[in-house]
Task: structure prediction
Amino acid sequence: MTGKVLKVVMRGDPLLQKKSVDVQDPLAPDIQTLIRDMEATIAHLKCSGLAAPQVGVALRLAVFRVMTGNPLYPLTPDDDPKGVDWTVMINPKITPLSEEKRVGWEPCQSIPGMMGQVARYHAIQYTFLNREGREETRVAKGFHARVVQHETDHLDGILFPDRMEEGCELRPKEEVLASLRVAS
Result:
């Protein structure tokens, strides 16, 4: 990665509760630098993705990847078994492909050390501009769909606890991971 590691904005910062504005010129040098810096930050944190508001920029831009070998989200033949390469989503729009939702554990770099269970659409279509400013449309299922929805929520000022059902609580990440290891 050629970018620099950025500081992640933490829960409680008003920026994380604001709806972000569209990126006007995806090819602008400052946008391309932001993309490289976000990729470097994701690689450093060993996480799946980040949205621009999480690094202090109120723009509709997110970067993610879906790696294999994630203990929280085993990939299946039906749900992107090979993972998803680095993806830059600029001004994304999501359309659910059915009403089916699945509950899964989610962490967030802006809420370090904690996780919560969130119901997300299992299958979505999403349209976005890529890092070259070209429009792409993809279908995502499973963890891939979860990541896209999680990062897009950040662009709308929504954190995953806002999506948790009443009665659900945040739990320490290590406790969740330990319980998943025991269950498998």
Q: What stands out?
A: The helical segments are 29-45, 142-155, 160-163, 173-183. The chain is about 25% helix and 30% strand. The mean pLDDT is 93. Residues 14-183 form a domain with the Peptide Deformylase fold (CATH 3.90.45.10).
